[in-house]
Amino acid sequence: MAKSVTAFTCTACGAAHKKWAGRCEACGAWNTIIEEAPLSQGPGRGLGATKGRAIPLAPLTSAEAPPPRSDSGMEELDRVLGGGLVPGSAILVGGDPGIGKSTLLLQGAAAFARKGLQAVYISGEEAGAQIRLRAQRLGLADAPVRLGTETNLRDILTTLDAERPDLAVIDSIQTLWSDQVEAAPGSVAQVRSAAHELVTFAKRRGVAVVLVGHVTKEGQIAGPRVVEHMVDTVLYFEGERGHQFRILRSVKNRFGPAGEIGVFEMTGAGLSEVANPSALFLSERGQPVAGSAVFAGIEGTRPVLTEIQALVAPSTLASPRRTVVGLDSGRVSTILAVLDARCGIPFAGLDVFLNVAGGMRVNEPAADLAIAGALLSAREDSALPADCVLFGEISLSGALRPVAQAENRLKEAQKLGFSQAILPEARKVEGVSGMSLMGIADLTGFVGEVFGAG
């Protein structure tokens, strides 16, 4: 009989260690390594001499029909899913506590059920009465969604195997426990085992399974990263508590484009779809003020215009503050260094505050020029034109690099009434007429043309 081997696993990133340590070498977290027994221990190290079955192989040119899809009628949700729900797919949805994950999935399950799909909603966190009260508040009490409350994985799989629904929502994966794993619910072993069993069931029975996952303080889905590799689609539900806007972002999608977003607005009657997010993010923009720049970005396949706000003020601290919300702080530090080294515009001794209006998160390098424009506008106390959009990537040499889908960005800006655009001087943009385009070669030229300094 083989000797049982004890493993040590990090609860933050799922990395395996041979012995216990106070700090995980993979992610750097402290006091996150726990001892756990392996899920199974085979009698030998190899597979032996027994042969398996031969799997069928097919050429790349073989014709295979695309998977059928079912739409919910919620265009923003269907867009993020890649065009609709695919039977047998496994979807993982993560988000901060209280952001609206349960509300979104209850509305989505009701929408699919009203389209003719058999939907089951199983909650391990809330009682049935709480979910029914939410359904009544959202006007979904008449939706043909069947509700269950359970945390035992064996009972859940038995129920789903007997009911054979088209869609099953499990809220949440951290509350489930398997009687085959000697660990507490929410541990790495339990989460991995529950996710594996549910994904295997989805593929075997053709049931679309949606798993809700908690997130860590860093915003990543809690538990081992292997769970994200198991599922077909990983969605993040984002938003700021102080804003009513919510963004459903596709991080991974085997059945559609990754990086796609759906925009919702939290109201008293639940989440309502936002068909034109650019107009919504710019709706509160008034008269042009210093420190404001409009960025024409691309989220997935759709162009989205957002306002980047900057504030520069003298600092009383030895180390000036750099507060960034909705942007990559490392990218902002790089732009500040380029402005200092290449353009001779220092920000030493100045506090810098940057924010993306509406609670939007922008990770695109094309936002560099808009960030630089907002910073310079705030520092010089000079407002940019109200009808002007900016986009372009800034290199370490100060040169402006071209970005993809410039035509789509400009068309979206023109649709919203913008008549000027500042962009990298690289190639001629075709298909856009009626807009004044200013091509800039480097950041020094941008400072001279827009703010009258060399």
Automatic annotation (TrEMBL):
Residue stretches in coiled coil: none
Domain notes: The middle region has homology to RecA with ATPase motifs including the RadA KNRFG motif, while the C-terminus is homologous to Lon protease.
Species for this entry: Paracoccus zhejiangensis
Database matches in Pfam families: AAA_25 (PF13481), ChlI (PF13541), Zn_ribbon_LapB (PF18073)
Function: DNA-dependent ATPase involved in processing of recombination intermediates, plays a role in repairing DNA breaks. Stimulates the branch migration of RecA-mediated strand transfer reactions, allowing the 3' invading strand to extend heteroduplex DNA faster. Binds ssDNA in the presence of ADP but not other nucleotides, has ATPase activity that is stimulated by ssDNA and various branched DNA structures, but inhibited by SSB. Does not have RecA's homology-searching function. Plays a role in repairing double-strand DNA breaks, probably involving stabilizing or processing branched DNA or blocked replication forks.
InterPro entries the record matches: AAA+_ATPase, DNA_repair_RadA, P-loop_NTPase, RecA_ATP-bd, Ribosomal_Su5_D2-typ_SF, Ribsml_uS5_D2-typ_fold_subgr, Rubredoxin_2
PROSITE patterns: RECA_2 (PS50162)
Protein name: DNA repair protein RadA
Stretches the record annotates as Lon-protease-like: 351-454
Gene Ontology CC: cytosol
Domain RecA family profile: 66-215
Similarity comment: Belongs to the RecA family. RadA subfamily.
A single BP term in Gene Ontology: recombinational repair
Bilayer-spanning residue ranges: none
Gene behind this protein: radA
Single GO molecular function: ATP binding
This protein's UniProt keywords: ATP-binding, DNA damage, DNA repair, DNA-binding, Hydrolase, Metal-binding, Nucleotide-binding, Stress response, Zinc, Zinc-finger
Residues at which ATP binds: G95, D96, P97, G98, I99, G100, K101, S102
Motif RadA KNRFG motif boundaries: 252-256
Domain of life: Bacteria
